[in-house]
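User: Need the bound-state model for 5'-O-[(L-methionyl)-sulphamoyl]adenosine:
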Amino acid sequence: MEKYVTTPIFYASGNPHLGHVYSVFIADALKRYWQLKVGRAFLITGTDEYGQKIERTAKDSGISVKQFVNQKSHCFAELWKKLKVSPDYFVRTTDDNHKHNVIDVWSLLTRSGDISLGDYTGLYCVECEQFYSEHQLVDGCCSIHETPVIQYSKPSYLFNLSKHLQSVLSYIEANEDFIQPENYRREVIRFLKESDQENLSISRTDFQWGISVPGNNEHVVYVWVDALFSYLTAIQALGGAKQNLANTIQVIGKDILLFHGVYWLALLSALKFPFPEKIIVHGWWTLRGKKISKSNPSSLIQPIDLAGITTIDGLKYSLLVKKPLGRDGDLTTKTLVETINSGLANSLGNLVKRCTTLISKNHQGLLKTPDKLTTYSEQSIALIAETDSLLSRLEKAYQEAQLHEVCFLVDALISSANTYFHERAPWNPKDSNPLDHAVETLQIICSLLHTISIVYSPIIPNICFDIRRQLGIEERELVWPGRVEILEFVINKPESVFQRIVYEGTK
Ligand code: MSP
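Assistant: Bound-state model below.
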């Protein structure tokens, strides 16, 4: 069955930054893994374009709101192109298909008796587009934006949240892998158990920039409700049905956990729609201890400038390997470059280079599996066994979205392969049958590199493509598991698949 992998849709109020890139890289890697695994996987991303905050920012910039969001949305789409990420669907909340979807959902909720018109009073952060209770504030300010909240009391449509919290709680308790990592699952459970929230305010009357509530033009749909249903808009636009939510993996940052783990699920429960397959929660990248965000300009490194130093695969690899999924991590270009040089240049790149150079020099560029080679040496058998056992551990890590673990596992295998290569010294065989010794060694390494070029392709697709090209392997649709017998490797011109990065900066 096909898989869908979603990122949050990004606010079209500012330019994309490294935090957004991180969400997209995780989702892109998961999509690519599922593509290998099941043959049909879709990556969904997009932009969140309505709401008071965007309306205000657009007005300040002196162009129409629609022109403003068009520009911002375009910046996101362009960045994904430059970073060689190809979403299968890019959803925009100002698109007509999305509007129709939201109107349909609203009508269903009205019919099921889950929406009523009332008043909503509370403390509201315009930046977050969210209400807070007194105890969630820090000195009267929202803890994320550190800006004062406003007292808000307005007529509003209310969603009967409390009616659905128990079924959400039961589901999350019964499904241990549903929200990962575990600490975030516990956070949602705690919230659900302690929540005394009756209703969720799901419409606004003090601005116009939104989808009008069906039958009442005074109200626009609360931007979070509108945004959450963009996931369904995208699945449907890809030809899927709402049942496909059940095979959808949703990648989100920890700051939007409650919207997904509580409100989204409660809305789905009210609609009797399936829940997503998994919610994968990641932590933040910080710069000198401050969350990278558009409201903190000193934290902004242009992703494309950074990729100019690290390469695209290098950036993806280092962001994924440097930080366990759920935690926060402080970023410096210097440590990213060191990580990349050690993992991709010294370890993987070096192995490819040494192996292909030797085949080219000593074997006329052609390495055939010899017919008479029926038994491998103990060393080779041990490396094959290590590769086999790695494959199942890798699958588990991919399926749990533990991408830093994926990198550690593959990097460990590359390191074993380098040791094997070094110890067997196929350039200088010592045993009585030198040709077999060299051929066996190179054969084992080429097969292993081929496997790596498949199982590592979700993380470093461009390097993996180059490895297969270097080994003369015809490009065809990749499938998991990677251990496929290739009968001959043809090396035309050994080239480096990853050059060491020279970075002179100190940060
Ligand atoms: N529009 C909402 C999401 C709606 S989804 C139905 C939103 N947008 S956002 O642009 O503010 O953030 C999108 C994602 O980027 C969030 O998952 C957030 O965690 C992530 N990141 C923003 N800054 C980040 C870092 N500094 N580090 C890692 N990810 C962070 O929220």
